[in-house]
Amino acid sequence: MVTAQSRYLEHAEDVLTQFLDWSETIGAALVMITGIEGGSVRDLGALMAVNASGDIAGYISGGCIDADVALQAQSAIAAGEPKSLRYGSGSPFTDLPLPCGGAIEIVIEPNPDSTALRACRDRLRARKPATLTLDAAGEFTARYQPKLRMRIAGRGADALALARLAKASGVEIDLQLRDGEDLDHAKACGFHDAIALDTPSDLPANHDDPFTAFVLMFHDNDWEVPLLQQALSGPAFYVGAVGSMRTQQRRTSELLSSGVPESLVRRVRGPVGLIGGMRDASMLAVSTFAEIVEAYHVQKANVFASTAIILLSAGQSARFEEGDKLMTDLEGAPLIRHAARLLETTPCAARLAIVGPDQLDRAAELRRFGWAVIENKEARSGQATSLRAGIEAAQHIPGVQSAMILLADMPDVSPHHLTALAETHAYGKSAAMSESSGVLMPPAMFSEDTFSALCAIGGDQGARSVFASLKNTVTLPITPTEARDIDTLADLHDRMEARYA
Prior knowledge:
Strand order of the largest sheet: 18-17-14-19-21-20-22
Number of strands: 22
Radius of gyration: 26 Å
Shape: globular
Distance between the termini: 72 Å
Number of helices: 18
Structural class: alpha/beta
């Protein structure tokens, strides 16, 4: 029986689960939006499942065409043939105009590859981004992100009000509460898995991922800094805290004093909420939840959400004639800073920088811009050891699905190129590398299924050998200017002359 709740399923994970259940019993068709012109209630890739009896799970419009789509789907099931349909402007269904004046194109697939559907559903269940291509959709590939999850640490009415609102909206909740009375209230509201916060020095394990929002919902000086430090050290896309502007200023000072980089401290949103000055727990919950939903939709479009950015900066400057090349001046700043500031304000799963022993100035510069610095004691053995150190660290960070590899001596790489590289890699590619005049080079991206191979390379090899062994790869042109690296003083002088020519 289809309930009202299952009728209007929204997330691909839920629609695919219902489709797979129906396909094993009564038979079903999967509907996907593959094209949009003008306005649309749903986005590209939105899914609807229809079984042989006409039951529906999910929706693709505001109700204006779903009933007809269901009839078309039943017809496709009976005939065993897929359909491609257009509704709205330019459609043969003149009796079914879209009120918005636009048009949508859909495919109806009565016999999709259940293995591919199950793989997509299972990746989403595992909190991993996923893609799905239906045979009837041609080259169109839908891209899905995991559901929103919230971790709320707090006490009293504010924390419980936010948890209740988010749960009613279908959001997975990780609720952490300060004392026994709050835990009792939470369990009475159905939060039976709520966790007690015992001591600031022994926090519950952090299971945040790039699609988790963390919210601090209480005022307690002993707890605020440890909880915020923990959240900022992980991949949560949103970190927020209740309180006044004065409270936020105090927290900021305490976080900076505790050693948290300024770039990370700036991530803390406070006071939380789209509307300031909310004095009622229920209204504060609405205001905060709206802000989180807004941030989540930005995160869904962020191609770096599940990426660990790895900056290789442990080179020995062997060919540079005057000291440490990465700390030499370039346009009023150390050379390393140009790479360190790449994607500075772009949320990602992790920012990992690799340095060698005794490269303290490099480490300090990197920490200043929010990088987690990893010392590679084997740096003199070649670049492969630094790559391995970065990949091994990335493997232990929740939510990491890919790694982007940057070199610290390439000062002219643009954020635009990095974004284009990530977008090129996002659609199911094992790896993507930059290419200049037929030469493969960093920046490069590799999916998690290549991490073992990357860790196995040795000597001064880069990632090219692994890239060459893969089949599902892609290259992206990089301009000669961006491809320039600095190895010698002559390289530095040539770069400066070209810059001002």
